[in-house]
Write a structure and sequence with these properties.
Layout lengths: L1 H27 L8 E4 L5 E6 L3 E6 L3 E3 L9 E7 L2 E11 L5 H8 L5 E7 L2 E9 L2 E9 L2 E8 L5 H12 L1 E2 L31
Antiparallel strand pairs: 1-2, 2-3, 3-11, 4-5, 5-6, 6-10, 7-8, 8-9, 9-10
Length: about 200
């Protein structure tokens, strides 16, 4: 009789541990890095980078991506480089207290920078041209995260073209518990060069 009670107690303990593990995994959320997914695209000249931080994009097959797994502070820290071209692209997803990209812009970006309105996927975004160092940055807020795509150009305009393609194909992936947006965006989103004709310039 006591043996049956002991087995029952052990069974209940194991069951509680299993349930607790599942609940803990759910609470922890999907932002923890479990590794990106890299897939071939239909053209076979591009790859799809699907990041556990909640986004994906297409990029040329010859580009190398360093996910900087040593970075434990940011949700995502990607560095795109090429053996044949100088310059690079950085993709950041950082925790932020800002809920509106306008507030972030007002507090974090100087008045001397050129700023244009744009979109990243379906989110309102800002395109900022910096002179020193020369770079183009697209910034957006996604739920509780600041998303930054930085392009450091090269003399052959290779990275401008790559950057335009990434912006055009960049898609936010709703994480567990986030609301989904059924409306897709098919905008221009690209950056043909450092300076573009602005939709609206913020003084």
């Amino acid at each position: 009789m006591e043996r049956k009670k002991l087995l029952l107690i052990i069974g209940l303990v194991v069951l509680f541990i299993l349930i607790g593990s599942v609940v803990l995994f759910k609470i922890k959320g999907s932002r923890s890095l479990v590794g990106p997914i890299v897939k071939e695209s239909e053209t076979s000249e591009e790859l799809t980078w699907e990041d556990p931080a909640g986004f994906n994009f297409l990029y040329p097959k010859e580009i190398k991506i360093d996910p900087h797994e040593e970075d434990e502070e940011n949700y995502a820290h990607l560095e795109l480089t090429s053996d044949d071209h100088s310059g690079k692209i950085l993709v950041w997803v950082k925790e932020t207290e800002y809920t509106d990209i306008e507030d972030w812009l007002e507090e974090e970006i100087g008045e001397e920078e050129q700023v244009f309105d744009t979109e990243l996927d379906t989110e309102p975004a800002k395109k900022i041209a910096f002179a020193d160092p020369e770079k183009l940055v697209v910034a957006a807020i996604d739920v509780d995260s600041l998303v930054l795509l930085e392009m450091y150009p090269d003399e052959e305009d290779y990275w401008q073209e790559v950057y335009s393609g990434i912006l055009d194909t960049f898609t936010f992936i709703p994480l567990e518990g986030e609301e989904t947006d059924s409306t897709g965006w098919q905008g221009e989103g690209g950056a043909g060069g450092i300076i573009e004709e602005p939709e609206e310039v913020i003084e």
